[in-house]
Amino acid sequence: MNKPKAFGGSFDKKEIQAKIEKYEKEINQKNFWNDPKRAQEVIKAQSILKNKIDPWEELINKIKDLSDLCEIVENEKDINSLEIEFNVLEKQYKDLLTISYFKEELDINNAFLTIHSGAGGTEACDWVTMLYRMYSRYAERKKYKTELIDLLEAEGGIKSVTIEIKGEYAYGLLKSEVGIHRLIRISPFDAAKKRHTSFASVFVDPVIDEKIEIIIKPEDIRIDTYRASGAGGQHVNKTSSAVRITHIETGIVTQSQSDRSQHKNKDMAMKVLKSRLYEYYKNKEDKKNKSKQELKKEISWGNQIRSYVFQPYNLVKDHRTKFENSNTTSVMDGNIDNFIEEYLKWKSLN
């Protein structure tokens, strides 16, 4: 059996190894713990780099072992087993390559994902429902957990919804979805069966680690309570358990009605607010994130990032990367990995 071809791609092992060794020298200094805060930062930075390089080392060793086995196998059964193993290693390589595109510290974190309906009325609310299902199915496929934070129902579907998606690199992957999503189809709500265009906006924020301190003074916010709506059950609809928090300076509004407890809803709304404030001030102060600021400013109904066409043909197309998929059913069932991977590649080059 011939040896498998190289997977391709690039990985700057020397640069990462040099940084690890630099941190190691600093850690071995006698006065290292004189500054506990700096010490923790160095240890964390070194750990992140090791987590980047160790899986690659493990993969390379497995490829070498597989390559050696290819030289000695003879029967069909062993060849089939090696091909299965090769496919497993190829998937591991693709997963590691995707992770290598992540440059921000919080890419590894959980994510808050919010969908708002745009132009299109009833159609747009149904479109939000469809996108909510798409991202929920995507999370299932990634074995991520989801928690509903807030849901506002409207005629035809959902006006807005916020969920927390829990899993490694959830934020790094899903931030590719920020922007306007356009749907073109024959409306199921139109007796004349005319073609309609609907819009929805998607926002994604990282769930902030407790170690990151975001100070919010009582005078900086306004807290309102109201009766929960939607699938909260009779109890929540009879009490003012839902909480809305408005950050006065920025105008950022967060809300939660997922729990029967007003106290727990307040904690969750505050958690979401801290994440959004972190992103807001980070983008404002960090010149490196200017492109992200511009992206958020461009979330207007005339600047869609992706179109989902169900009529007169089937096609989902990303307008940034030009990647497209004609299997609309598969995409709406949560198979959006290719769109995310193409975005990460495109972003690394732009």
TrEMBL record:
<dbReference type="InterPro" id="IPR005139">
    <property type="entry name" value="PCRF"/>
</dbReference>
<dbReference type="Pfam" id="PF00472">
    <property type="entry name" value="RF-1"/>
</dbReference>
<comment type="function">
    <text>Peptide chain release factor 2 directs the termination of translation in response to the peptide chain termination codons UGA and UAA.</text>
</comment>
<dbReference type="InterPro" id="IPR004374">
    <property type="entry name" value="PrfB"/>
</dbReference>
<keyword id="KW-0175">Coiled coil</keyword>
<dbReference type="GO" id="GO:0005737">
    <property type="term" value="C:cytoplasm"/>
</dbReference>
<protein>
    <recommendedName>
        <fullName>Peptide chain release factor 2</fullName>
    </recommendedName>
</protein>
<feature type="domain" description="Prokaryotic-type class I peptide chain release factors">
    <location>
        <begin position="227"/>
        <end position="243"/>
    </location>
</feature>
<feature type="coiled-coil region">
    <location>
        <begin position="56"/>
        <end position="99"/>
    </location>
</feature>
<keyword id="KW-0648">Protein biosynthesis</keyword>
<comment type="similarity">
    <text>Belongs to the prokaryotic/mitochondrial release factor family.</text>
</comment>
<dbReference type="InterPro" id="IPR000352">
    <property type="entry name" value="Pep_chain_release_fac_I"/>
</dbReference>
<keyword id="KW-0488">Methylation</keyword>
<keyword id="KW-0963">Cytoplasm</keyword>
<feature type="modified residue" description="N5-methylglutamine">
    <location>
        <position position="234"/>
    </location>
</feature>
<dbReference type="InterPro" id="IPR045853">
    <property type="entry name" value="Pep_chain_release_fac_I_sf"/>
</dbReference>
<dbReference type="GO" id="GO:0016149">
    <property type="term" value="F:translation release factor activity, codon specific"/>
</dbReference>
<dbReference type="Pfam" id="PF03462">
    <property type="entry name" value="PCRF"/>
</dbReference>
